[in-house]
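Need residues for this backbone.
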């Protein structure tokens, strides 16, 4: 996903802000105010930073700690008028302790075959993505995403990015997970799955799998994007404990 049609500065000019990296300046932009896709009746605005330059990976390491999230070749965080419901969250791997229900999800999916692929768009994955969007997010901004836009979501990255596919024992594609590899963490970018396999709780399972991968690769955190307390679509993230939230620049355990 890109912001080429919506990104602008409120003044109509590029505005310079001090970058999170102390030795350079980046251009940051604000998006137009648009209807919020998560909370009906609310308005959404984002601060967006370009990640297409040669130091993007170093820069993003710092930005993700400050609550930014990557989409394509940009990083963004919310700066919505009169709302601060979107809370950046991450899972500290050393203290992650899956409860009974998550352990059950892990057992149910032990038969899945996982393949790690380069972040390249594939027709089979896009077909599953479309079915997932139609079934789960028919009114969302990604529901009508074309193949070219989907390809941008998967392939436009200046960060080390991987694609994990999960297949049933018979070879059928069950789920796909796009994630970034950072020095100290993994960051879940987007997941989608076969909506007919609801009993497997594949969305939760892919987070369990990412947490296990973090542990195997000695990563400290798994970044899970944003959490909104009043948004049912994000409620599953609260199942992962102890979750940390970013509040006023400080990471702390969620209550």
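Answer:
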């Amino acid at each position: 996903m890109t912001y080429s049609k919506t990104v602008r500065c409120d003044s109509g000019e590029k505005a310079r802000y001090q970058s999170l990296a102390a030795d350079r300046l980046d251009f940051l932009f604000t998006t137009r105010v648009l209807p919020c896709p998560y909370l009906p009746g609310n308005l959404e605005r984002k601060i967006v930073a370009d990640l297409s330059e040669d130091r993007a990976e170093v820069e993003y390491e710092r930005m993700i700690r400050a609550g930014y999230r990557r989409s394509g070749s940009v990083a963004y965080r919310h700066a919505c008028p009169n709302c601060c419901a979107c809370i950046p969250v991450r899972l500290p791997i050393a203290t992650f302790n899956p409860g009974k229900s998550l352990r059950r999800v892990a057992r149910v999916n032990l038969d899945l075959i996982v393949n790690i692929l380069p972040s390249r768009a594939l027709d089979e994955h896009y077909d599953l993505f479309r079915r997932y969007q139609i079934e789960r997010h028919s009114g969302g901004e990604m529901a009508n995403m074309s193949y070219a836009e989907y390809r941008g979501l998967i392939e436009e990255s200046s960060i080390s990015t991987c694609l994990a596919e999960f297949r049933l024992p018979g070879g059928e594609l069950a789920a796909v997970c796009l994630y970034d590899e950072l020095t100290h963490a993994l960051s879940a970018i987007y997941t989608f799955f076969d909506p007919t396999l609801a009993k497997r709780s594949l969305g939760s399972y892919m987070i369990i799998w990412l947490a296990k991968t973090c542990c195997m690769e000695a990563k400290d955190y798994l970044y899970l994007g944003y959490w909104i307390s009043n948004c049912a679509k994000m409620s599953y993230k609260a199942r992962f404990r102890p979750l940390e939230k970013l509040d006023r620049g400080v990471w702390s355990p969620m209550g």
